[in-house]
Design brief:
By secondary structure, the chain is α/β, with parallel strands linked by helices. It contains five helices and seven strands.
């Protein structure tokens, strides 16, 4: 696994794939935590135009190219993540992060082959609290 502390300290912009507009859900709580810690959060969910007052994109490839995505944080089932991994490579993200309980060896291979750091089965909020505070 990649050095989580290094990934989190270097990152500025995090695309949250599968972000729910229901702030009580894990994705909403994580996104709010990241915003409160100074990260730029880019929602990605094809069902919504806006989440948390932020423009929401249909997919990673719909995010304008001038926005550098450092971490792609994924809240989707493991079997749904390989296409997201391919998009993360395509947009030049630095890291593909699959949230707690999400595993995909196919996505790991895609990310590694594409030069991305890869984290799976870890909550980015918990890891931030552990490594950075």
């Amino acid at each position: 696994m990649a050095n989580i502390e290094k990934i989190l300290k270097k990152a500025k912009t995090i695309a949250v794939v599968g972000l729910s507009p229901k702030l009580g859900r894990a994705s909403g709580m994580v996104a709010q935590y990241l915003l409160n810690r100074g990260y730029r959060v880019i929602p990605v969910n094809p069902m919504y135009e806006e989440i948390m007052g932020l423009k929401c994109y249909q997919s990673l490839t719909d995010i304008p190219g001038e926005i550098q995505i450092d971490i792609v944080d994924v809240f989707r089932k493991g079997q749904d993540t390989p296409p997201i991994a391919l998009e993360a490579v395509k947009i030049g993200a630095s890291c593909l992060w699959l949230q707690l309980g999400i595993l995909s060896e196919d996505s790991k291979k895609i990310a590694n082959d594409g030069g991305l750091a890869f984290v799976q089965d870890h909550c980015i909020k918990v890891e931030h609290q552990r490594h950075i505070g």
